[in-house]
Amino acid sequence: MPDPDIAEIDDSAIYKAVLLSSERITPESSREEIRQLVFRTDDLDFDGKVGSCVRVLAPGQYGNRYHKRFYLIADHDHQSPDAAEFALCVRRCFYTDEVNGEEYEGIASNYLCDLKPGSSIEFSGPVGYPFVIPANQSASLLMIGMGTGIAPFRGLIRMLYEQHGGWKGKVRLFHGARTGLEMPYLNDANNDLGNYFDQPTFKAFQAVSPRPMFDAPVALDNALEQNAAEVWEIINSPDSRIYVAGQSQMHTLIDKAMTSIAGSSDAWLSKRNELVAAGRWQEVLY
């Protein structure tokens, strides 16, 4: 999780990046527009990793120079000695004014989603702790994401099976979204993770809202509880890692499921503290 003083990050080191591509990864029929944006930076001091964040400095309003928002690094590659590429997964956001009931565009997300290739952005960071892959390839990995929180896991899974040449331990991905159409990398329009379904050590489990029209919570807790035996086995396996990414509301769903799986809230709290102390629980929530 990013540091508690994340809001106080020093913007003295501001980098620039050029947009190489912007691809919608949810179907046109979905009400949720989620895009993957790939940027190139020539600033070699920038050392982003999958799972850490960048602070995008969108043009400000009302006399402010910047409108600042954090985004997870979904992928990162050093393509050449003098440049690097990184990807962000961005959902076009809107919010409703509680006073007048009018809907307004989210400033940073709409700025990014409207960018055309060749445009440049300013940003700072990285912030927070990246998801670290253990040296032991027999270690089991549990990934839990919601919405655009799946983005860094796509990058991690690609590294496991392409750059590392495979993975011996279990790799389990639990991902939630309002509907199946809104699953980044797991919907019909863009199913990148389907490339790894034939890997014997990889499985993905989807969770959706039981009543999306009424904004009922995504049943991520149910998906975890339905696979309780394997989830608990991974949590207790030596050298395993648990990665969590997405909105902060995930904490409630995960704690609910894990309390049920562990048998009590005290048992789960003890186990979670043990995982955190050992560096085996890594999360980025926003």
TrEMBL record:
Cross-referenced SUPFAM superfamilies: Ferredoxin reductase-like, C-terminal NADP-linked domain, Riboflavin synthase domain-like
Gene3D superfamilies cross-referenced by the UniProt entry: Nucleotide-binding domain of ferredoxin-NADP reductase (FNR) module, Translation factors
Keywords: FAD, Flavoprotein, NADP, Oxidoreductase
GO MF entry, a single one: oxidoreductase activity
Keyword Flavoprotein among record annotations: yes
UniProt keyword Amino-acid biosynthesis present: no
One family name in Pfam for this protein: NAD_binding_1
Superkingdom of origin: Bacteria
Domain FAD-binding FR-type: 12-133
Required cofactor names: FAD
Alphabetized PANTHER family for the sequence: PTHR43314
The protein, known as: Oxidoreductase FAD/NAD(P)-binding domain protein
Species whose genome carries this gene: Sideroxydans lithotrophicus (strain ES-1)
